[in-house]
Amino acid sequence: MIGFERVCETLKEKESAVLAFSGGFDSSYLAEACARSLERVCAVFVDLPVTSDRQKSEAVRIAGAIGIPLAVVELDWKTLGDMKLNDGMRCYHCKKAIYREVRSVAEDLEINNVICGDNYDDLKAGRPGKLAASEAGVMSPLEELKITRKEILDFVTSKSWSEGMIKETCLATRIPEDVFLADGLLKDIEEIEETIRKVTGISQVRFRHRGDHGVIQTYPEDIEKVTEKLPVLMSELKEKRLSFRVDPEGYKDF
């Protein structure tokens, strides 16, 4: 709890802020700190073509449970630069668009401070989105205070609003780099993952689309559940005209 209290004390010095909010663990941790510490605060969820309906609904739910005001901004491909090309700078284009919209909300509210939930461990990843944050003047309090992913998970999972919470990521992460981000392809992936959850009862899943086939990834302890239901899944999803296999290693870093 000491780390969280340090974050709250740092935020109090700012008095007001607008938070780039994804509804994930990091930004939810920071949203709770903002709700406790700031006189004026607003979270902004930017709904992109690569955002699942599940992620959006979770963001709305969590913001409401925390008690932080939330603005939802919808963007289409025309505002996302070359993101649809899905090259090595995809995350840069995405974050640039997100931070532009969050900054716009901040200006409307006459709030100078724009913050995001990047944590200390994210520094090791070399993410292109960091450049976009720097260009937009977005601050990362968790990174600056050396708050780690483990600290965040420990805190978030202790909160009642985290029940049933999953780690969701942009749908483009299921598609190999340089494969064009077609709307139909993204929708297929979203529908396939929802079907997998419905049929198997698991919560965390990624469907890695590989052209004429796909790889289902889940926690190692849930692999057997998916494997047992694979014939049912293939029947349910036959109109997708894909073959499916389950990753035997599982996915450990949701």
Rg estimate, integer Å: 19 Å
CATH superfamily of the largest domain: HUPs
Please mark out the parts with pLDDT under 50 across 5 or more consecutive residues, or reply none: none
What level of helicity do the residues show?
40-55%
> Which strand-content bin applies to the residues?
5-15%
Main sheet: strands, sense, barrel: 4 strands, parallel
Strand order of the largest sheet: 3-2-1-4
Please give the count of helices: 10
In the CATH hierarchy, what is the architecture of the largest domain at level 2? 3-Layer(aba) Sandwich
Termini separation: 23 Å
Question: Strand tally, please?
Answer: 7
Number of separate domains:
2
Q: Using the coordinates shown, work out and report the CATH topology of the largest domain.
A: Rossmann fold
Q: Under the CATH scheme, which class of the largest domain?
A: Alpha Beta
Question: What's the mean pLDDT score?
Answer: 94
Order of helices and strands: HEHEHEHEHHHHEEHHE
Structural class: alpha/beta
Shape: globular
